Amino acid sequence: MDKSVELVIELNGLHFSYDEKTSVLEDINLKVRKGERIGIIGANGAGKSTLFKLLTGLLTGRGEVEIAGTKLEKKTLCEIRKRMGLVLQDSDNQLFMPTLFDDMAFGPRNYGKSKEEAEIAVNKALGMLGIEELKYRSCTRMSGGEKRMAAIATILAMEPEIILMDEPSITLDPYNRRKLINNLNEMDQTLLIASHDLDMILETCERVILIDNAKITADGRAEDILSDKELLEQCHLELPLCFQQAMPYNRDSN
Amino acid sequence: MNRITSAMMELMSMDELSRDSSFVHARNPLAKLIVTIIYIVAVLSFDITNLTGLIPMVLIPVVLFSLSGIEIRVCFYKLRIILPLIIFIGIWNPILNRTSALDLGLFVLTEGTLSFLTLLLKSLLALMMSFILVATTGIDGICAGLRRIHVPSIIVSLILITYRYISLLLTEAETLVTAYTLRAPGQKGVHVSAWGSFLGQLLLRSMDRANELYGSMRLRGFTGEFHYADNDKIDGTDILFTLICLIVIVGFRIVNISRLIGGIFI
């Protein structure tokens, strides 16, 4: 790994279990450089969401977590969360204010931005995702796809250096999914995307981390890992559709 | 639409009302909060039989409703659930206290009836004023106002989060009821045999979601303080609005206007 590039996330021997019997994550060692785009993949229950919660301090495990040179501790939580945004898997849990504008301004205002500065950040994020028309809409009156875009917008408005996204393309229609992929490709922040949408991972991330049996099973170039049929199938995944299309279509092959 | 959905719609409609624009909507939350608190204290401080003194207090919420552009019938519609409870509490007074307060020959007004009417009016006025505060300020504004008058952040957070969790609880209940109804065609409501698991599921799911939601708030810098309202400065109009309201409230509380007007004619 090139030492001249700044490390923004460093995990050493991270371990987590909910009930002390079964490990959800075991001995996770990971280094993420500034500006990297990493896809986190794995079967259901592999620990992808748990990893994100550990990185943001919502859960506490054993081992060391360092974000942009700051060790994750109770006293550094605020500083770390200011630099890192997490888009939750369920958009309903992310949206709690009466309108999208209030929701988007919530983070920037809490982190000390004035009303005017927060509004600028909100407008910028809305423009980036092309959802300006949702600005004053009640979050409860949005469709699933709109909620997803809105949840992403609440994090973009905070202008974090690192963005963690848990299943960002879930509930999006093909048009909005494509729009999201384009947006992700235009971002210059460090991105960690946990998803089962392997085609999206392939299009947006240059590096992939595969989690299986609570451990990092593979860490490497996206093209290499996502084209390894045997490895993916061992971990209850399958090749991205773009690689499958090279094979003849057979409905009965399953 | 089932009852849970309509309850959610009503809750949302309160938020929507608070986003309108009017003279009352534009006032600082703190100004409206102070006026509401003083008004409620003044109304509650009236003697239980002082109905005539209380009647002029009706003018204040009526004027505020008019200035806010919110129809009073919307308020009464929302209060329809709580009004029977107030009536139930006060209805015993006319039965238990039959001492004559006013004898007009054919009609005798008892102290019980008088206290019942006063209690009803007091509750109605306090609720109307609270309604106008919530409908023109929104829960976030109210919480920010409470912090400004140094109500401990833990209490304010509790109010805000409880409000947020009501809609969360309703959403979860709606999901469960829908799932139940789809597999129990022809049944009216949830069968008693399913109540235990239904409530258990509702509790567990709501707790899970509440936890996630609170996590999302913390991730965006929420520490119990309402920084987003810090810049909402009180201007001259807010001070004038508060002063006029307070003078009218105190004036109506000290001087019995009804008796004064009656004295002119008698």
Q: Give the total of beta strands of chain A.
A: 10
Biggest chain contact: A-B, 34 and 29 residues
Query: How many helix segments of chain A?
Result: 10
Strand residues, percent of chain B: under 5%
Oligomeric status: heterodimer
Any idea what the radius of gyration of chain B is?
23 Å
Structure summarized in a few sentences:
The complex is a heterodimer of chains A (254) and B (266). By secondary structure, chain A is of the alpha/beta class.
Describe the secondary-structure layout.
The complex is a heterodimer of chains A (254) and B (266).
Chain A: E1 7-17, E2 23-33, E3 37-41, H1 48-55, E4 62-67, E5 70-71, H2 77-83, E6 84-87, H3 100-110, H4 115-129, H5 144-156, E7 162-166, H6 174-186, E8 190-194, H7 198-204, E9 207-212, E10 215-221, H8 222-226, H9 229-234, H10 241-244
Helix pairs in contact in A: 3-4, 3-5, 4-5
Chain B: H1 3-18, H2 23-26, H3 29-44, H4 51-54, H5 59-68, H6 72-78, H7 83-90, H8 92-96, E1 100-103, E2 108-110, H9 111-148, H10 153-182, H11 195-219, H12 236-254, H13 257-265
Antiparallel strand pairs in B: 1-2
Helix pairs in contact in B: 1-9, 1-10, 3-9, 3-12, 5-9, 7-9, 9-10, 10-11
Describe this structure in words.
- The complex is a heterodimer of chains A (254) and B (266).
- By secondary structure, chain A is α/β, with parallel strands linked by helices.
- Chain A is built from 10 helices and 10 strands.
- In chain A, the strands form 2 sheets. Chain A has a 6-stranded mixed β-sheet with strand order 6-7-8-3-9-10, with helices on both faces. Chain A has a 4-stranded antiparallel β-sheet with strand order 2-1-4-5, with helices on one face.
- The longest helix of chain A has 15 residues, at 115-129.
- In chain A, 46% of the residues are buried.
- The mean pLDDT of chain A is 90.
- Chain B is an all-alpha fold.
- Chain B has 2 domains: 1-151 and 235-266, no CATH class; 153-234, no CATH class.
- In chain B, 72% of the residues lie in helices and 3% in strands.
- Chain B contains 13 helices and 2 strands; from the N terminus they run H-H-H-H-H-H-H-H-E-E-H-H-H-H-H.
- Chain B has helices spanning 3-18, 23-26, 29-44, 51-54, 59-68, 72-78, 83-90, 92-96, 111-148, 153-182, 195-219, 236-254, 257-265, and strands at residues 100-103, 108-110.
- A two-stranded antiparallel ribbon of chain B has the order 1-2.
- Chain B starts with a helix and ends with a helix.
- The model of chain B has no long low-confidence stretch (mean pLDDT 86).
- The interface between A and B is medium-sized, with 34 and 29 residues.
